[in-house]
Amino acid sequence: DRGEVNAIASAGNYLYLIRANAGKEFWRFSKGSGQWAPLTDLYADFAGNTTIIYPGSGTDIYYAGSRFTFYKYSTVTGTSQALAKLPAFGRGAAFLYNVSANTITLIPGENKTNAFIYSVSKNAWSMPADIGWTSYGGGMLALNDNETVFYREGAASTGYASAAIYRYSLSTKTLTSLPSMPSTLGAGARMTSDGKNNLFMTRGDGYADFWKCSVANNQTQALNSTNGSFSAGHSVCYKNNFVYAIKGGNSTALWRYRVNTDTWENLTQMYPTAALPAGVSYGARLVAGSSNDPYIYCIRGANGPGIFRYNTNTSGAGMNTWENLTQ
């Protein structure tokens, strides 16, 4: 569906997928058998701003329904439980699970200025901070330390474009303004991280700009740009010292950024099997598998049904090849 409405989470040996604005379509994909199975115990239709949140371990998944409803889904029993209703949120909302505190942070996006925290043990939302601005399209990304979150302000509904980036502490609930990014963001900007030292960012649709934010000094610097501009539906993910990128705009191109050498490679030109099985557009996403999973996974988005996985191995059978998981 159009408009960033697909949500996906990787949990253990499975991928979980919501197709929003489409009733109650919720599926599970087994990485072992390569088979899809529908999940039916859902309480509410999914809205365009839905999300799936997986804590990184355990058997529960959290998801947002329509009208700001909020649920916990057990992967063991296959049943959903209604939780405390979400605060109102709009486009660009970002969710983050904090493992050590057992909480979920929500920055609610467009036309909202307050951040909220959900306590899993208390089943309640609280308002810890007034972030002072409203935006969408920027995004939030967490490190693996259960403490540090980075947030890019993005563009506002008034047409104002921002180069602002912030660092948020989950323990102290404080927001710190960092030195500005090299340029203002455009629509569709994306982020990924190595989980510890650096964030990697695109500027947005229509730009080839690619940036890195250092965790150690809070500085964002321009890296080598891609050979072509990103388009609507582009996405990035980090895996094993590379950043993988799909171009978007109905393209089948797959690019790879080498962190150690600050260089881009067009994998589609290097390996014919690296071309996506079909073009990707609005709502497309890349998700990296776990550390022992050699694949990255792609939701096709608005252009039609399709979930693909790409073998990132540098040797052996199936390397640099996409599989269509929906055939």
Summarize the structure.
The chain has one helix at residues 267-270; strands at 6-11, 14-19, 25-30, 36-38, 52-53, 60-64, 70-74, 80-82, 94-98, 103-107, 114-119, 124-130, 140-142, 148-152, 165-169, 174-177, 191-193, 198-202, 210-214, 220-222, 235-239, 242-246, 254-258, 263-266, 285-288, 295-299, 307-311, 322-324. By secondary structure, the chain is mainly β. Strand 17 and strand 18 (198-202) form a beta hairpin.
How would you describe this structure to a colleague?
- The structure is a single chain.
- By secondary structure, the protein is mainly β.
- It has 1 helix and 28 strands.
- It has one helix at residues 267-270; strands spanning 6-11, 14-19, 25-30, 36-38, 52-53, 60-64, 70-74, 80-82, 94-98, 103-107, 114-119, 124-130, 140-142, 148-152, 165-169, 174-177, 191-193, 198-202, 210-214, 220-222, 235-239, 242-246, 254-258, 263-266, 285-288, 295-299, 307-311, 322-324.
- The strands form 7 sheets. A 4-stranded antiparallel beta sheet has the order 1-2-3-4, with no helix packed on it.
- A hairpin with a 2-residue loop joins β1 (6-11) and β2.
- It is globular and about 50 Å long.
- The model is unreliable at 1-5 (pLDDT under 50).
Explain the layout of strands and helices:
Elements: E1 6-11, E2 14-19, E3 25-30, E4 36-38, E5 52-53, E6 60-64, E7 70-74, E8 80-82, E9 94-98, E10 103-107, E11 114-119, E12 124-130, E13 140-142, E14 148-152, E15 165-169, E16 174-177, E17 191-193, E18 198-202, E19 210-214, E20 220-222, E21 235-239, E22 242-246, E23 254-258, E24 263-266, H1 267-270, E25 285-288, E26 295-299, E27 307-311, E28 322-324
